[in-house]
Amino acid sequence: MDQLNYQVLENSGYQGYILKDAPVKVMQFGEGNFLRAFVDYWFDLANEKGVWNGKEVLVQPIAPGLAKLINQQEGLYTLYLRGSENGEKVDRKRVISSVAGCLNPYEKEDYEALMELAKSDDLEVIVSNTTEAGIQYDPSCKADDCPPSSFPAKLTQVLLTRFNAGKKGVVILACELIDNNGKELLKCVNQYIDQWELGEDFRRYVNEECIFCGSLVDRIVPGRIRDPKEVAALEEENGYTDQLIDVGEVFGVWVIEGPEGLDDRLPFKKAGISDKVFVVPDMSPYKKRKVRILNGAHTGFTLGAYLAGRDIVRDCMEDDKIRGFMNKMLYEEVIPTLPLDKDDLLAFASAVQDRFNNPFVDHQLMSISLNSSSKWKARNMPSFLTYIEEQKELPACLTMSLAFYIAFYSNDLQELNDSGLVAKRADGSCYTISDDRWILEFYWERKDLSAKELVHDVLSNENLWDQDLTQIPGLEDAVAADLEMIREKGAEEAFASCL
Hints:
499 residues; N-(1-d-carboxylethyl)-l-norvaline Dehydrogenase, domain 2; three-stranded mixed β-sheet
């Protein structure tokens, strides 16, 4: 069977939207599964709506990468968006044609092509997702490296080449999963301007004519299909082989932090998808929405659900008690504390249940449980404290969630070894808790304490919470009672007690 390219796709009888030729308007650092299932998908939609007519050239941020495969397939790949919408199973196929090709700047010819693209009149946008470690200043990078190792140094070279060619500034959209990603990237570029002594005119160009935008990306991307039988069946159905098949969930939102008028420079508003991709002056409320609702829901019920015998997230959504607990926590305790339009919050929370009920993703609870101490503090504690401050009472579900956390870390402890803290759940199976070593040692040293004694030590540990939680009236007694219920009656009964 032939490998996917434009001619093979035409021969296969594919009936979907395809754009073969268009000017390259986007330079994208990163060619992995996430960007291809997210950013490149949105630009492809903008093409289909007839408002953009653009292509992207992808750039490998590190030497090993997908450039050869992408170019063999002329930038084409098959994207499957899979999940649940309004309780209904969804499986959508789309061949993405917004990508023109991919450059490997660690090869001389491609590095030169990258610098030529930097001077293009058509270039409008630079996108990046170079992992959390990508936006870092590395002083070992030199101005004449071809290329320098760090992404910010490569970007500085690209912008300098563009500046020297007298071309207009571009919009930079950072998608890395770090706080203030756009600002941090600009900070790194300014450090290279200083280190490489590139001059005040170039500094003004970077800081005034280019627009560095932070952004919040939200789509779960499992990536490759790993079952060889499923891959073979899809290729038979499609009529071609595709070594770049990508899979993402149906849900997707891209919040871009930028100035007024940027919506008119980007194609998404004109394409009618501004409910999915939009520009705001401050994305922090949307980050709070994601962290406290989506991530907070995960952390809020996961540990208790595992103790109740569940193993994957989807199983939890099929359990009336656990799903009811999650919904009560979100709708009655979390959403009232958030500074966003309530209809928007309700719609986002409603989508969470569909996302967790994705029939194509077996999201293991134990994978979510990693480092739950810091996760509970970051994702659930802000809602917990704000609710107490505003309502002058303890939130029942979040309080129980805190007890679930303590129970998970103290349930019939077996040993502390190099892999982590080994505990045992009700069915007799063992599980290994992964967290910072000092946290695991803290719990191991207290394995023989009563519920009341353990709760006191946990809540009063300021290294865990940056404060003494025993100072919150009634909290210590409430968490101790919840922990005793979990230990004596089981996690399932504890979930039910909150409803």
